Model the fold of this input.
Amino acid sequence: MVASEALPFAKTGGLADVLGSLPRALRRLGHDVDVVIPRYRGIAAGDRIGRVSVSFGAQVIDAEVFATTNDGVRTVFLDHPVYFDRDYLYGTGGHDYADNAERFAFLAHGALEWAASGPPYDVIHAHDWQAALIPILLRTVFADHPWLGTVPAIFTVH
Done:
């Protein structure tokens, strides 16, 4: 699962509640679930497990990858301070950050780069607009990957 927020790490609304409970419910049913979110300011959880590089236009942007496991659910954090070390998750004073589209395109692409380096997933579930590029990236950028290009994707708008 890929989202912009999840309890107990980052919350502005109901999305975090769903990402805090749905993976645990699936785990109780016997499924292995990873949740990928940004490593926002104030998130200290997790141990460094790797690094991803995302080709973003003419540039390559790197992120450290951290992970922690609670209640059998692994939460993976993409740590790129330029995008995620900010006072608020989405913006201030009732206005979005001007680069939100870029920030969350990076989240989507970075989550898939990280997924591509590990064992196969059965499905990738993208949550809300912040992860909306995932189904498109799977069939374009990752189309030739041995398993990621054909993995089923779910997109849920909350």
User: Anything to note?
Assistant: The first strand starts at residue 34 and ends at 38.
